[in-house]
Amino acid sequence: VEDEDIKPRASNKFYDSEQAINTADLNEVEKLLKIKIPVQLRQFLLHHNGGMPENNAWLDPEGEFEWVVIHELIPVKYYKKFNNNKNYLMPFKAADLWGRKLLPETFLPFAIDAGGNYFCIDINNGKIYYYTLDTWSDNLSLTDNQDKSTLFLCNSFNEFISKLVCEDDLDDLYGL
Hints:
By secondary structure, the chain is of the alpha+beta class. It has helices at residues 23-33, 39-47, 90-99, 142-149, 157-163, 167-174, and strands spanning 14-15, 52-53, 57-58, 68-69, 72-73, 107-112, 118-122, 128-131, 150-154.
């Protein structure tokens, strides 16, 4: 059995989403961050504010790296687990990472892995990237660090969601 034999589960349910948000909430985020949230992500956020997808793992179609797993989708507003602490919400995570130059200002983080790395959408073209912070080096320039930390995943948010597979299926494949 090969990675390409693993297919997304048709159900792809989403669990533990936070309280629903509306277009006014998204407009507020756009105003705060001075950005325009790409349409596909915007539509998704209106249905799923944070939480976890059943299909939570991304397999690299080129086979250059092992799969990466979503630990959680980052809520836009409301976060029961952290008593609605704004520091854990998407607009504040983005502003903090941009302000500290840890993330390019065109990358909006929408999900995080268990190691503190981010799944991001490029607000200019809608492409999806995996952005690693655990590879940062004080010996490299900001540009070199950002280049080294950026891994292209796919061309759109909808493509990203549709190609996620369930980590449990990968664990079964590899006997984990």
